[in-house]
Amino acid sequence: MLAAIEGADVALVPTLKVWQHHLRDEPASARARSASSSTGQLRAWRDAGGTVVFGTDTGGMNDYDPSDEYALMAEAGMTFREILAALTTTPAALIGGPAPTGRIAPGQPADLVVLDGDPSQNVRALADVLSTRNRRSVPADLARHLARHDPTHGPSRLADVPGTSSETPDSESWNRLTGS
């Protein structure tokens, strides 16, 4: 089946967590088999070069925390950067937004998220949001600094931003990041 869709303009939204929710009253062994099967299918898709975008089935369950989905995506072999791309640049490219959509560049509008953790160490940290900066122009000095750390997505830690630490950023850097 994977060969049949190779080259097709198709993306997979795995929604792995919903199966754990629907099987919550089943024995742990049934949940484990389901998780293994689901993550195996995602791994096969990814390994075949398939496009993955993040999505949820929150309408089918009442647990809105995405961190389990991130962990299952990692269990399927996706790296932190691949999961981050599934949340940002990949869907932006699929919906046909302007070229810089989903990336940080001087003067471009951006939705930035400041996390309280390092998702490269624990993908669940992608759900630990401290602050957001919505649709504001990225200051050139901040964009240059972020590009030096990761030209695709920017830093993975608040400590990577000048004038900040993982504990307490100075007020000027914090205001630049959050738009406060």
Write up this protein.
- The strands form 2 sheets. The protein has a two-stranded parallel ribbon with strand order 1-2. Strands 3-4 form a two-stranded antiparallel sheet.
- Residues 150-170 have low confidence and may be disordered.
- The chain has 8 helices and 4 strands.
- The chain has 2 domains: 2-78; 109-178, no CATH class.
- 39% of the residues lie in helices and 11% in strands.
- The chain starts with a helix and ends with a helix.
- The chain is an alpha+beta fold and 180 residues long.
Topology, pairings included?
Blueprint: H1 2-5, E1 11-12, H2 17-22, H3 28-47, E2 51-52, H4 67-75, H5 80-87, H6 89-94, E3 109-115, E4 129-137, H7 140-149, H8 171-178
Parallel strand pairs: 1-2
Antiparallel strand pairs: 3-4
In short:
This protein has 180 residues and is of the alpha+beta class. It has helices at residues 2-5, 17-22, 28-47, 67-75, 80-87, 89-94, 140-149, 171-178; strands at residues 11-12, 51-52, 109-115, 129-137.
Order of helices and strands: HEHHEHHHEEHH
Strand % is 5-15%
* Computed CA radius of gyration, to the nearest angstrom: 18 Å
Shape: globular
The helix tally amounts to 8
- Find the structural class using helix and strand composition: alpha+beta
Distance between the termini: 50 Å
For the largest sheet, list the strands in their spatial order.
1-2
Quaternary structure of the protein: single chain
| Helical amount | 25-40%
Please indicate the count of domains.
2
Tally of DSSP β-strands: 4
What is the residue-averaged pLDDT?
75
Largest beta-sheet characterization:
2 strands, parallel
**Spans with pLDDT under 50 lasting ≥5 residues?**
150-170
